[in-house]
Amino acid sequence: MARSEELFERAQKYIPGGVNSPVRAFGSVGMRPRFIAGADGAYMTDADGKTYLDFVGSWGPMILGHNRPEIRRAVAEASERGLSYGAATEVEVDMAEYLCSLVPSIEMVRMVNSGTEAVMSAVRAARGFTGRNKIVKFNGCYHGHSDGLLVKAGSGVMTAGVPGSAGVPAGCTEDTLTAVYNDLTSVEALFRANPGQIAAVIVEPVAANMGVVAPEAGFLPGLRKLCDENGSLLIFDEVITGFRLGIDGAQGYYGIRPDLTTFGKIIGAGMPVGAYGGRRDVMRVVSPVGTVYQAGTLSGNPVAMTAGLTQLRLLAEHPRWYRELNEKADRFFGRMEEMLLRRGLPYTVNRVGSLGCLFFTDAPVHNYDDASRADTEMFGRYCRFLFENGIYCAPSQFEAMFLSMAHTEEELDRTLETMDRFFAGI
Ligand code: HOZ
Predict the structure, then answer these.
(1) Index of the ligand 1 atom closest to the CA of residue 22
(2) 13 has catalytic annotation
(3) Do the bridges between strand 391-392 and strand 51-54 make them parallel or antiparallel, or are there none, so unpaired?
(4) pLDDT averaged over the chain?
């Protein structure tokens, strides 16, 4: 039996579904999980020694490619001094100062351990600051797995085809209002129906957990305006877009200043890190200055901070890299569109910067309902073909394809040729 199969058999005895996060179970594409043994540059190698060109990049943080020597060395050095102290350290101050210098809307920031934690805490801060309870989220946007946000969520929830999660008491979601992505009228209606009650609107400025869906012109500025008119906070969930679309994330890319921002894995360079930050007056509600409680022994962990800071510095010091990555992605997704056109296939390619997604639907995808119309069976066939041919893509129609600075033009050409062979056969 192959090593991956053996591991999966063993894993299922001790881990629910054999995996520690549902999407990586590969269930929706009719496959079994790949157990990864190592990764380097643009490649990952599984437990059976098969190598894949990786387009997931740990769901975003590997923007420089895997196993970057500068980061590995920094982590090794930091770990020589101990792994965790549960006490304040200099590197946390460096990280906070650096984040504030890179992203103009961030005046103060609190480190946590994941994107889920960052969003949960940002929402609490928004509620504490405004004294209001309700929040607005968009169908198909995914903000981690905290109770209040598992409503019409994207990512694994959408992949499983369920509206929410069992085990979440109704009371936990009764203050979560849902609107339609790219539809300002649906947000206006919620503000009208709940006057003076909405603490915040939370949005992925580029939705990247229902596949990739770009904000239409006017959508993000419209949200900014509605929040201002109603005394509500605008929270950008930049767990995926932060430090990916550019050094100042989607907010820089689109020129919108949110009140609060959440970050995730990318600021730990792949180590378990998240952060939330924004307006100083809002962040000052957080304990121990204010009365909104939020804490964590591992928050600001020195090894994770060192990894993240090293990556952020590399990115900030090489602005050309973002330009090159985005141009490379533009060519890649552009050629994918040409290929589909040439073959007379009506599928939809959505992309923003180095994030992209091929939807198996012939209609444009602007929101959750549009995305839900995609042919997931066909996506499964496509995904299996890519894996058989050494290409590791997200095993769900409702996730993004992540390009990294480590992908070469030659590798991208090879990927397109593989995709073309699949399309030739359908
Ligand atoms: N929530 C992640 C994708 N948006 C997947 C996490 C994982 O399986 O590692």
Answers:
(1) 8
(2) no
(3) parallel
(4) 97
pTM score, whole prediction = 0.97
pLDDT at 308: 98
Structure tokens at 361: 């639907």
pLDDT digits (tens, 9 = 90+) for 222-237: 999 999 999 999 999 9
Burial pattern 67-96, b for ≥16 Cβ within 10 A else e, equals ebeebeebbeebeeeeeeeeeebebbeebb
Cα 382 to averaged position of ligand 1 atoms, centre (Å): 20
Tell me whether residue 152 is one of the annotated catalytic residues.
no
- CA dist., res. 261 & res. 389, Å (int): 38
Active-site annotation holds for 237: yes
Alpha carbon nearest to ligand 1 atom 5, residue? 23
d(CA 182, CA 215): 6
Q: Which residues line ligand 1 (CB under 6 A)?
A: 21, 23-24, 59, 155-156, 209, 399
Q: How confident is the model at residue 158 (pLDDT cuts 50, 70, 90)?
A: confident
Instruction: Give the C-alpha separation, 140 to 270, whole Å.
Output: 24
Q: What is the pLDDT of residue 159?
A: 83
Residues 383 and 400 sit within 8 Å (Cβ to Cβ): no
The residue whose CB lies within 8 Å of the most ligand 1 atoms, and thus the one to mutate among 21, 29, 143, 240, is: 21
